[in-house]
Write a structure and sequence with these properties.
383 residues; six-stranded parallel beta sheet; 17% strand; globular
Length: 383
């Protein structure tokens, strides 16, 4: 089976979608599937390069902001797309953007089946335009993506039940598959003692509006243990300057004794911080899956995760001690304080959380993806 992946930029750093795509392609190849990628080039000349290289598209005015979001758009190339489609048995569309919907339209004319992954809620995009709260605007954007891409596919991968149910609510025509993006796990799991002097509290994610790191900083004003807490934010993004300013104010007012750290970490560094973190905090009210949460849980870190209508990450919580209402900084502070006051429960749950995420093993997801591709190809042959 020959699978063509179409993604704007598979090599973006600090972008969960790009990281997930790289992992999926790697393990599909290991499983013996022929895979080719259409994407912008890899800036690492010695690394893997896509078979079909697209040029970068520069947005007037907005390009600097887009790049701060750790994202880049590629320029559609009709000739290259036709060449790629002539090779492929099935096309996997990784995003709901221009190069995907134009490729889907061409694929339909050529009789090549398409599948897609629902990777982004409209709110992930419109929150940066201060429209994340508008159900009408987000519904319009999702309907557009549905008409241009999802309904032109035979099958759609839904990484979480939250996404699956939303697709059902919008009456997607394609077959819907509940397939986590998945991660690689080492065996056996080695859970370390967490850092308690000070208490290391870890947060991973793009520093942006929809990730809502400001709620964690605000929670420090309500925690009884704020002077004993060290915050580490792993990520970069357009809100870094504002978050740093907010953090510095907490230090200058004496609420925090330890200066919060903001840094971009390699996968190895991420693992090292997660393994010693006392808690992992995930504040995003809009999240399709939240693989960064799994990255911490597999190291035995106990999470405290925001619950919201459009956030699927709370599915990783084993009980209510690890959830709080999104944007409620007082409730978050209460959860943090409870875990600090119950170190034995924290240690025991660290082991339980490390075991709980094994069901998201990438090999299981790859098996399901291959079955989905086969289903798409069979449907095309019968039509």
């Amino acid at each position: 089976m020959k699978v063509l992946f179409i993604i704007n930029n598979m090599f973006g750093k600090g972008n969960g979608l790009c990281s997930s795509a790289r992992t999926t392609v790697k393990y599909l190849l290991q499983a013996g599937v022929e895979v080719r990628v259409m994407s912008m080039e890899n800036p690492n000349r010695k690394g893997y390069q896509p078979e079909y290289v697209l040029k970068k598209f520069h947005f007037p005015i907005f390009q600097p902001f887009i790049e701060k979001m750790t994202f880049c758009y590629a320029r559609y190339d009709a000739k290259l797309t036709r060449e790629a489609l002539e090779w492929a048995d099935v096309v996997h569309l990784e995003e709901p953007f221009t190069i995907q919907w134009r490729a889907a339209r061409m694929a339909k004319k050529m009789g090549v089946p398409c599948v897609s992954t629902y990777h982004l809620h409209p709110e992930n995009i419109l929150s940066h335009l201060f429209l994340g709260w508008s159900r009408g605007a987000n519904a319009i954007l999702l309907k557009a993506a549905q008409a241009l891409i999802f309904d032109k596919c035979t099958d759609v991968q839904c990484p979480t039940r939250n996404v699956l149910e939303r697709a059902q609510d919008f009456n997607f025509k394609a077959r819907l598959h509940l397939i986590p993006n998945g991660m690689r796990f080492e065996s056996p799991i080695d859970v370390h003692e967490p850092q308690t002097d000070p208490y290391l509290i870890f947060s991973i994610g793009r520093l942006s509006v929809e990730k809502d790191q400001k709620t964690l900083l605000r929670a420090m004003r309500h925690s009884r243990y704020s002077e004993r807490i060290k915050l580490v934010f792993a990520g970069k993004g357009p809100k870094e300057k504002a978050l740093r300013k907010q953090a510095e104010k907490l230090v200058s007012e004496g609420i925090l004794k330890y200066q919060p750290e903001f840094m971009f970490l390699s996968p190895e560094e991420m693992k090292a911080y997660a393994s010693k973190a006392y808690l992992y905090i995930h504040c995003a009210p809009v999240e399709v899956e939240g693989l960064s949460c799994i990255e911490s849980l597999r190291e035995g870190t106990v999470p405290v995760i925001a619950e919201a209508r459009l956030s699927a990450t709370a599915q990783f919580a084993l009980d209510s001690r690890s959830t709080f209402p999104a944007r409620d900084c007082k409730a978050l502070a209460e959860r943090i304080d409870w875990w600090i006051e119950h170190p034995q429960e924290r240690l025991e749950m660290g082991h339980e959380y490390a075991q709980s995420v094994l069901k998201y093993d990438i090999h299981k997801s790859i098996e399901q993806l291959i079955a989905m591709y086969s289903s798409a190809v069979d449907s095309a042959r019968k039509s």
